[in-house]
Amino acid sequence: MKIICVGRNYVDHIKELDNNKPKEPVLFLKPQTAIINKKQPFFIPSFSNEIHYELEVIIKINRLGKFIQRKFSHKYYDEIGLGIDFTARDLQLELKKNGLPWEKAKAFDGSCLIGNWIKKSDFNNVDDINFKLTKNEEIVQNSNTSLMLWKIDELIEYISKFFTLKIGDVIFTGTPSGVGKVNLNDNLKGYINDNELLSINVK
Ligand code: ZN
How far does residue 160's CA lie from ligand 1's centre (Å)? Predict the structure, then answer.
């Protein structure tokens, strides 16, 4: 399986990182080795002094697809969840400055947390989902999928032009504002409405 991530998909987050609003979705990949085993903590890697959490709504692909038209996108996933795209922000800034690929900052071992899944059929509208992240019980990210620049169905159409989607692939749909640094012994919890879908300790 592969993990396809969307960058710069919420205007408020683009502003907080001082990035330009893209004309098309920004895509990058994480390998399967980036996934954190459930029940394991997030271990701060030695190569970074500034690891950020990015809470994102994620979807799991349930059928093979290529060149998917937007009107059919909804048939390609039936589970929605939350994930954290852990990012070595210091390294990423350095790579961006030099025009280099982001993988070392975004795709390292342990950079991907995938939480529990909810059936898509439990939602009236996937483009109106409230989600939030707490750090040590304080809300640090709080948003709604209606604020995405490119909505889930548009992302599936766009991504499948470049990458064949396979069963089990996961799409990270971008983070809203409120990203920040993790510190030793932090606890992060992610919620859709009031359902806790993920919880992780930082070590
Ligand atoms: Zn992200």
Answer: 19
